[in-house]
Design goal:
The chain contains 8 helices and 11 strands. By secondary structure, the protein is α/β, with parallel strands linked by helices. β3, α2 and β4 form a beta-alpha-beta unit.
Length: 265
């Protein structure tokens, strides 16, 4: 079911081939610019799908979607990635990891409903939607000279003053009632996240991620169910690093693909 924008014939200049999640997957990715890291590992462990359809919005080289579908033989994935180069790498990564038959790459603008439909992304058809959106609005940070890194970290094309809210609404439009949404972002985006989720998501859970014990959270994992009326809750936080800077046992297991995020009760 793969739609391949541009397949790579072999190792390409400027790309590396790296083991990920303790070697469970092998990922080709650009040597420079934005690379797969802790945010992707956290998001990949933040939600699961035993069977059905996953949509990963802003999928990059496909790491999160590949992680989730590799865990279950009856799950399929649509990876939405507007950058043609990254989309091509994502398709190649699916093939190299033996998941091409359950993996489709879609080049579509999440902000544009008609473009989503034209690309074959039907509203309310996904069982799970995951996303690692850009963290910053245009002008909020000094732009990197690396164009790919800018696309990964700074919104473009939203067409309004609230790009994160528009991004989340676009994601939720793809999610079926009763389906689950999961996202990783920065804690300072909380107000925008809550505004986008209002009257759309229930059973909303927020899980703060701390770089070390006693430090303020630097990431926020978000999970919710479309149409649920269950109240919001704050899940127990996750500490990434212990003394000496080594990953804690829980964080290490997540980064090795050995466990999912514990959302508590």
């Amino acid at each position: 079911m793969t739609e391949t924008p541009t397949r790579l014939d072999g190792p390409a200049e400027g790309l590396s081939s790296d083991p990920w999640l303790g070697g469970r997957l092998t990922l080709m990715q650009p040597r420079r610019g934005h690379r797969v890291g802790s945010d992707a590992a956290l998001l990949a462990a933040a939600a699961d799908l035993a069977e059905g359809r996953l949509v990963d919005v802003g999928a990059g080289v496909g790491a999160v979607a590949l992680s989730i579908v590799s865990r279950h033989a009856r799950a399929t994935a649509d990876c939405v990635e507007i950058d043609p180069a990254l989309a091509g790498i994502a398709a190649e990564n699916a093939a190299r990891n033996g998941l091409a038959e359950r993996f489709r790459v879609v080049g579509a603008d999440i902000f544009d409903a008609s473009a989503r439909r034209a690309a074959g992304l039907a509203d309310e058809a996904a069982d799970l939607v995951v996303t690692n959106p850009p963290f910053f609005e245009p002008g909020a940070v000094r732009a990197s000279p690396d164009a790919a890194k800018v696309r990964a970290h700074v919104f473009s094309g939203a067409g309004d003053a609230a790009p994160l809210e528009s991004w989340i609404r676009g994601c939720l439009a793809l999610l079926r009632p009763g389906g689950r949404f999961a996202m990783v972002h920065r804690p300072d985006a909380l107000l925008a996240i809550l505004a986008a989720a209002e009257n759309r998501l229930g059973a909303l859970a927020l899980l703060p991620v701390h770089p070390r014990a006693g430090a303020s959270a630097h990431r926020l994992l978000v999970s919710g169910v479309k149409g649920s009326k269950a109240p919001l809750r704050i899940a127990p936080g996750l500490v990434l690093h212990g003394p000496g800077g080594r990953l804690t046992a829980e964080a290490d297991a997540i980064h090795r693909g050995e466990r999912l995020v514990d959302w508590g009760g």
